[in-house]
Write a structure and sequence with these properties.
With 203 residues, the chain is of the alpha/beta class. Helix content is 32%, strand content 18%.
Length: 203
């Protein structure tokens, strides 16, 4: 399933690929299920056409979604083209439904360039899951794939900063853990003009 509902939003699970294996992620324990939705794409990522057809069908049902959110059991920025195209479609539809991206912040490393200008063409808000202000602890919590270990923490922080200065409503988030001091992360969010949210672990 690539389109599911959560808290009034229409959520888009466009990939199961992910550059990290976060310690708090429930996708393995939950068998890629999320509150009754099967988010296992079984190796077939939806095409842009698939996504737009599903969203158009969703808009014909009431109540309308309060937002479109790229979020699932994978890192959405692997599908940058889909994010940008859906964002443009949402703006051109005239329905004024905002588009949000939930990400671990490694999109610039994935694409080897700054993707924030691409996102700004269609995305209104970005939520970056940083989880700690300590680079060594980031490695333990996020468990990144080898290609993202050396520069991952710095890249994720810089991605959040670029989103904020690029005019996107930016939120830095952290899953609440007893071993993490959220003070430095909260301070970093404030320093770049981003919001901060501590969220409970799923369970």
């Amino acid at each position: 399933m690539f389109l599911y509902e959560h808290e009034g939003g229409a959520y888009l699970n466009v990939t199961n690929r992910c550059p990290v294996a976060c310690a708090f992620c429930v996708k393995t324990d939950w068998g890629r299920q999320f509150r009754g939705s099967d988010l296992d794409l079984k190796g077939r990522e939806p095409s842009l056409e698939d996504v737009l057809i599903a969203l158009n069908e969703r808009l014909h049902r009431s109540p309308p979604p309060k937002e479109f959110v790229f979020c699932g059991f994978g890192e959405p920025t692997f599908r940058l083209d889909v994010i940008e195209a859906v964002g443009r479609w949402a703006r051109e539809s005239g329905r004024k439904i905002p588009v949000r991206l939930n990400t671990v912040g490694l999109g610039n490393l994935i694409h080897s360039r700054d993707i924030v200008p691409d996102l700004a063409r269609g995305v209104d808000a970005v939520s970056v899951s940083l989880n700690t202000g300590d680079p060594e602890q980031w490695m333990v919590i996020h468990r990144p794939a080898p290609a993202y270990r050396a520069g991952g923490f710095a890249a994720a922080r810089e991605f959040a900063r670029l989103c904020a200065v690029g005019g996107l409503r930016t939120r830095v988030t952290a899953v609440e853990r007893s071993d993490v001091d959220l003070g430095p992360l909260r301070a970093y969010a404030a320093s770049i003009g981003a919001e901060f949210l501590a969220r409970p672990a799923l369970g």
